[in-house]
Amino acid sequence: MYTIDAHAKVNIFLKITGYKNGYHTLLSRFVQVNGLYDTISFIPQLCETFTIQGCDNIPKESNTLYKAYKALNLHTANPAVIEFFNTHKIVVAKRIPSQAGLGGGSSDAAAFMLLVNDICDLRLSASQLAQIGSTIGADLPFFIYRCTSANVSGFGEIVKPFDEAPLALELYTPPLGCDTTQVYKAFKEHFLPSIKPDLFFGWESISSSELLKAVGDPMMLNDLYPAALESYPLLSGYVKPNWFFSGSGSTFFRLKEKDEA
């Protein structure tokens, strides 16, 4: 059996910087969440088709693991990948909530690609894997580079590791999900004209803990927060003072107090 952990992330801040070719550009600080991860395992089994267990509520064609498998096959045309999954199934121990702004699907796909690259001896560099991963989702390059903290920009393909101490975070995920596509659509329709990149100039050089304490306002830190509230009015019922909003939602987070860390 082969196995790899796929960690969650939070967005300390997420600012939309523009809109190009049908996609939003951004500047964001991604931080790995210690202690929250899915586990991807490849277990020996004869399989007539690409087989995933543990994601039963997601159609195979929509699953990021299947998309990663297809992308690797398209890029490498290496029969070793197909042959391996004729004799192994994928089992996902899912712990990261879906549609929660924690990057679970992207992290799973990135971990899958890293493990397949190793097992099948594809000899792809991290930058090559990140380029392939970016065709699946904007968050994949961050997870492929295995950063604990990084400034992410462009369409998500520019990842610059940020040196800072690990954060002790507390998470709260309400019992509802926020569809990323819907949240970005709401942002484009209602909030895109109001972006002001000069307001967050220099944020990428400030530590995550300092930013959370200095800025303080979750609306100011995350441009997608008001778009999520616009798309999912029930989300407002779960808002707590002094909690921040990750990605396109629906998870809130805060720094743990020193006596809690």
Observed structural traits:
261 residues, Ribosomal Protein S5, domain 2, alpha+beta, 2 domains, single chain, 9 helices, 9 strands, six-stranded mixed beta sheet
Describe this entry's structure for a reader.
- The chain is α+β, with helices and mostly antiparallel strands.
- It folds into 2 domains: 2-161, Ribosomal Protein S5, domain 2; 169-255.
- The chain is 31% helix and 26% strand.
- It has 9 helices and 9 strands.
- The chain has helices at residues 64-76, 79-86, 104-119, 126-133, 140-144, 180-190, 208-215, 218-221, 224-231; strands spanning 2-20, 23-44, 52-53, 88-93, 149-154, 158-161, 169-172, 244-245, 252-255.
- The strands form 2 sheets. Strands 1, 2, 3, 4, 5 and 6 form a 6-stranded mixed β-sheet that branches. A 3-stranded antiparallel β-sheet has the order 7-9-8.
- Helix 3 (104-119) crosses helix 4 (126-133).
- It is globular, with a radius of gyration of 18 Å.
Which CATH class of the largest domain applies here?
Alpha Beta
CATH architecture of the largest domain: 2-Layer Sandwich
Cα shape: globular
Provide a count of the helices. Answer: 9
Rg, alpha carbons: 18 Å
What oligomeric state do these chains adopt?
A: single chain
Helix/strand order = EEEHHEHHHEEEHHHHEE
Number of domains as seen in the coordinates: 2
**How would you state the average pLDDT, rounded?**
94
Gap from first CA to last CA? 34 Å
Tell me how many strands there are: 9
* Poorly predicted sequence stretches spanning 5 or more consecutive residues: none
What percent of residues adopt helix (DSSP H or I)? 25-40%
**What structural class do helix, strand and pairing data support?**
alpha+beta
Major sheet details: 6 strands, mixed
Estimated share of beta-strand residues: 25-35%
CATH fold node name of the largest domain: Ribosomal Protein S5, domain 2
